[in-house]
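Page 42, continued from yesterday. The earlier attempt failed because a stray header line got pasted into the input along with the sequence. Redoing it now with the clean sequence only.
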Amino acid sequence: MAGPVPFKPPAGRSGTAIPTVLADDEALALDELAFLLREFPDIEIVGTARNGIEAVQCIEECEPDLVFLDVQMPGLDGLGVIHKLKADKAPMPAFVLCTAYEQYALEAFRLEALDYLLKPVDRDRLAQTVERVKRSLLEPEQAAPTMTVNAGAAAGPVARAKLLVKTNGRNLIVDASDLIYATIEDGLITVVTTAVEGQTNYKTIEELQSSLDPATFWRAHRGYVVNINHIREVIPWFKSSYQLRMDDKKGTEIPVSRVQTKRLRELFKL
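This time it went through. Structure tokens are written below.
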């Protein structure tokens, strides 16, 4: 078995391009997708894999923010790759599932895949997918706080001062400023505050983030929103990446996605 293949990106890519892994057992389909994606400067291919086991290895080694994942592959299918990464507690990238069959769509969206592409991949349909990816992964960076005192004074939706947290059969009202971080898994948003941990009624992490003060709450990773006032430590991690240690009782460590690393350096002058 040859193993996952590092991918040399074309020259001239933007420093904010989204690091991406492609996984497909069909060589022609893999090459075609890589060819099509070269038209999109916001996508940087950092590795490829030709089966599910290679895909897990490549994702854990390359730490991409996005994976185009074939559903039917030998060794481990695409859905199995996602389940294996969750079992390994690896930082989860965004996934776009690619397949010739429609019957996997429901499971794909249950696993919070950003999109579901049918083969053969159409260039115009791929462009729609890339736009969706950019909205999910790049726009939070553009909306991230600047750490200035008056950053929240700009016009826009009024940030909520209170949040409802459901825990142990109770509906508790907490100050939004007490929120340490929020995360999403299997469609369920968990919030950790200075006093309690529980769930919210928000359907997406984007919806929750939009209700919070942008001067205080930052989308450090696709699956996390953090309160910058509750970051205890910035931990250097592999390949020039970082993790954040929060000041909750567990000292939770939260990954910073590559596209957010530049923002982290700006926030704390790293």
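Notes: DSSP finds eight helices and 16 strands in the chain.
Reminder to self: strip header lines before submitting.
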